[in-house]
C-alpha cells in the first residue's frame, strides 16, 4: 500500500484506506454455519461411538393440575353429549363408556416411575425390568443383575425380572421371560411383537434404537429428530443455551389445512420442530421443541410467536470414557391450552380475516429421566439375547399358535390337559394373558390419553 499512497492524490488515498479499514472491521470473516447434513453426520459419528451399549435408565412421569382439569372437563362434556336428546342408544353407551374411561384415568397415581436395563448390539436388543407385583421385586430401583441369562439363572437370579429380547432375524422376533409367579409357575413366550408392543410402558433411551422396525413410537425424541431427512432440514441461526453455543436447526412438514380453508387460498398446517444442537458435544441437542403453525402460500400466516406443545430439555451431557458424549439427564414437557381459560372459538372466516386468540399454554405432563449406568461396549452374548426357557416353563409359541411346556412334547402336553391339568384357566401364559398383563392394562391408559388428544384436536 505504500506505493499506492505515493501514486494517488492524498485525499483519495486517505479515503481508500478508510473504506478498506472499515470493511476489515465490519466484514471480518464470520464463522461459517454448518449444514444440517454436517450436524446430522456429527450426531451419527457420536452415536457410533457406542457400538454395543448397556444403558440403565429411569424416568418418572408427573401429570399436572391442568391435565386433571382438562380431563375432568372432557369427561363432563362427554356425559352431557350422552344426555342430549339427539344421541342414539348406541352412541349414548359409547359416550358414557368414554366418559367413565377418562374418570378412571383421573384415579390413577399422579406420578409413576420405572427403570429399565437396556442392552443392544445394534442388531438386536433386550430390555429388563423388575416385576413390581411379586415378592422381592425392586420396582423403581435401578440396580439390575449382571449374571448371564442361563436357564438356571432365569429360575434364580431373574425370577422376579421381566425380560424381552428383540431379534429381527428370528421368527418370531420377540422372546419374553415373565418370571416365576407366587405359585411357582414359570412363564415365557415367543411373539411377533416389537418391544414397545410387548411392554407398553417402555421407551428406548437416547441413542438406543437402531432401526424403525424396532418400534418407532418408542424412540427417544432425540433419535426421532435425527431420523428426519437432513436434506429437508436447515440451519437457521446460532444461539447460546446455558453457556453453550448451539446451532438452531428447523424442520417443517406441511399438510392440507382442510376443506374449510380451501376457498380462502392455499392454507396448510405446518408441523414444526426445532433443535438447538451443541456441535462441541457430539452434536447432541440441548433443547427440542415441537409446535404447529398455519401457513398460507408457503409462509406463516400470522406473525405470532408459536407456542410449543412438546419440549425436550437435556440438563446434563457427560463424556463417557472410551466412547462419546451422552445425555444423562433431561426433561420432557407437554403443553396444552389452559383448561381454566375461557374463550370463544374462532370461525374459519374470523381466523382468515386476521383475528387471533391469546391462549395460555400450561404444562400438562412432565417426564424426567436420568441414566444410572452406561457401558458403551457391553457386548451382550448372543445366547443371552436368544435365551432358552428353563424346563417346566409354560410358554406361548407364536409359530404354533398355542401354549406349551418346555421339556414336554405337544402330545404329552395335550394328554396332560385332557387328564385335567396342568394349570387352571387364566394361569397359562397364553397370548391373551400376556396382552392383559403387559399390554392391555398399561395400553388402556395410553389409549385414553390418545383419545383425549384426538377429542381436543377435533374440537380445535
Description:
The protein is α+β, with helices and mostly antiparallel strands. The protein folds into 2 domains: 152 residues, no CATH class; 247 residues, no CATH class. The chain contains 13 helices and 16 strands. The protein has a 16-stranded mixed sheet that branches. A hairpin with a 2-residue loop joins strand 10 and strand 11. The longest helix is centred in the C-terminal third of the chain and has 29 residues. The radius of gyration is 29 Å and the shape is globular. The N and C termini lie far apart (68 Å). The N terminus and C terminus are likely disordered.
Say how many strands there are. 16
Indicate the proportion of strand residues: 25-35%
The proportion of residues forming helix, as a percent range, comes to 25-40%
Q: Find the structural class using helix and strand composition.
A: alpha+beta
Radius of gyration: 29 Å
Alpha plus pi helix count: 13
Give the helices and strands as they follow along the chain. Answer: HHHEHHEEHEEEHHEEHEEEEEHEHEEHH
- Apparent shape: globular
Indicate how many domains the architecture comprises: 2
Largest sheet: 16 strands, mixed
- Unreliable stretches: 1-28, 424-460
Mean pLDDT: 79
Distance between the termini: 68 Å
Helices and strands, with pairings:
Layout: H1 2-7, H2 10-26, H3 36-48, E1 54-63, H4 65-83, H5 89-106, E2 111-120, E3 125-130, H6 151-155, E4 161-166, E5 174-180, E6 186-191, H7 195-198, H8 221-226, E7 233-241, E8 244-256, H9 259-262, E9 267-278, E10 284-296, E11 299-300, E12 310-319, E13 325-337, H10 348-352, E14 361-375, H11 382-385, E15 394-397, E16 402-405, H12 410-418, H13 431-459
